[in-house]
Amino acid sequence: MALLNILHFPDPKLRTVAKPVTEFDCELKQLVANMFETMYEAPGIGLAATQVDRHIRLLVMDVSEERNTPQCLINPEILESDGEQESDEGCLSVPGFYENVKRAGHIRVKAQDESGKSREFEADGLEAVCIQHEMDHSQGKLFVDYISSLKRGRIRAKLVKMKRNNELG
Ligand code: QAP
Ligand code: CO
Q: What residues have their beta carbon closer than 5 A to ion ligand 2?
């Protein structure tokens, strides 16, 4: 197992559109295990492969209080969505910033698991927000794309500055 490096906004690699997963092999299972380890260590509630520079349609999440309900969604699709909910979102790729985002309230999802088995289920609340947020990553989209360009620009400038200060040691 290993911790993976998380890309930070405004890294252009976060804009890559991910390709479907086609091989459900041991390498995939290793990536999933490492993504869970990275997410729990952060700690975070969701992580998309795009954020660790692997451009495939894969996400891991755990929205449970107890942090004992890992979910891995591969090649996820939203079959139906209805309603609306608004909540503050953050992102491991945008550390330290939280903004209100409007999402569908209720979704029906189809996704494969690590062994390629397909399932369908429904989600609402935080679980639905997390799935929509993580699926956006696979399309190269970030939660900061939903806020004003003025706010986004300020966040970008602060993160660029923090990165530069880090590099100077
Ligand atoms: C996406 O986000 C999400 O800024 C997952 O300093 C967010 O795990 C889904 C995190 C909100 C649903 C609702 C963010 C950790 C973690 C930070 C995360 C930070 C440390 C974010
Ligand atoms: Co995110």
A: 91
